[in-house]
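Changelog-adjacent note: as of this version, every example in the card shows the full chain rather than a window. The one below runs 498 residues end to end.
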Amino acid sequence: MFSLAEPLWLLPLCYGAALLANLFPWAHARHWALARLAGYGGALLVLVALLLALLDGRDNDRLGLVMAALVSLLGLVILDYSERYLRGEPGQRRFILALLGTLASVATVVSTGNLYLLVGAWILSSLCLHPLLTFYRDRPAAVIVAHKKFIASRLADACLIAAAALLIQAADSHQLPLIVERLASAASAGGGLAWSVELALALLVLAVILKSAQLPVHGWLIQVMEAPTPVSALLHAGLVNLGGFVLLRFAPLLSQAPVAQTLLVLVGGLTAVLAALVMMTRVSIKVRLAWSTCAQMGFMLMECGLGLYELALVHLLAHSLYKAHAFLTAGEVVGQVSRHALYVPERAPGLGQTLLALPLAGLWVLALHGLWTSFLPQHALPAAALALLAVGLAPWCIRRASWVHGVLVSGVLLVAYLLWHLAAAGLLAGTPRPGPYQDALAALVVMLFIGLYLLQAWITSHPHGALARRLHQRAFAGFHLDEYFTRLTFRLWPVRAQ
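Full-length structure tokens:
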């Protein structure tokens, strides 16, 4: 399942070779040329790997191939953007070395089937990111926030190393496919996972939560705005998504681990809801995008906890592409919003209209899904996925000029998602379906997000009411959740800004 097309192994080596070349004196005047060569070379290697995978007919690691294609595309775009963004800035060579190291580490994570390499590369990606976050060393805010992120990442690394040690000992192998196959088979034969494997998966989930900036250790992701914009694009579009990718690797085991599933659903669901509320109070484009990433990561982890792995993969790929584009074009967004407000004044929908949109979207989702399953019954979506899609599509029914227009737009979006879901199901062939325990968790999650929708509907229709004012004050402060973690980190390991 995890056998890789050979050229894929050259992707991290391509970035690593460019990094080593930049260490020699002769390369000082050619550092951006070498970086661009690595970017284009990596994209070409992944394209060759994809073509070979299509031609040889072997059971290649399709998930790894797609993730490698995503990494190479992001690497190419961010390297090209960084050269123009940093023109005239001191310290460009230091920036390139750290960026190439980060890309090489991320490429290793998505391309390897060796758990030792995966853990080491994931840790190294965080260490290489640190110089990028502190690129402007004279800014105290950048140093302090990077320090908070450093502490959270080291806690995650400790959990990750312990989880890997337990899994390797339990499976008597360090190869990822063998670990998953042996432990899943043993669980099926013995009626469940061993306690050591349950503990390992819980530690793995804790590591993912810490590295994905979930509440209450999310503050570093929100406050790391002193870094250059290409670093923000790399962080939000690539690094924080690695947790979702690792969970997809371990999907057959996670589906049999109730403790790990509960952690993902509770932490991810609460983070998604609270971060969505906070995002409504922000005016700064980059800060809104940061809170959006926090919420999106929570939603993705919640999807993995519910066993909706195809939905999580679609979410991962779409969020990466969207967030990279959003950060790299953040300067244009301000002008677009101003022009939109000038020529197309926003008119808040009424409470009745907003409430009616939810059942309308639900009926529309059921109708289109029924048509879909009549042709492809084997690709029917779980009830939890349908409910979440209905909640997500409901606002589109009222954001258009008319109800008919809104329903048609939401229908197009739903069909597009179903096609994406079909492709994701092919990439994750053999992934288990949600079980009874996950169905029970799904009922709680659906009620949580329906409650969020109703709360947002009330606030939108009564923006000056007492509830809206009180909630705005608390949400604007981020519900004061980051302050507790900040005080604890500074008490345990103080930082001195230079």
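Structural remarks: DSSP finds 22 helices and no strands in the chain.
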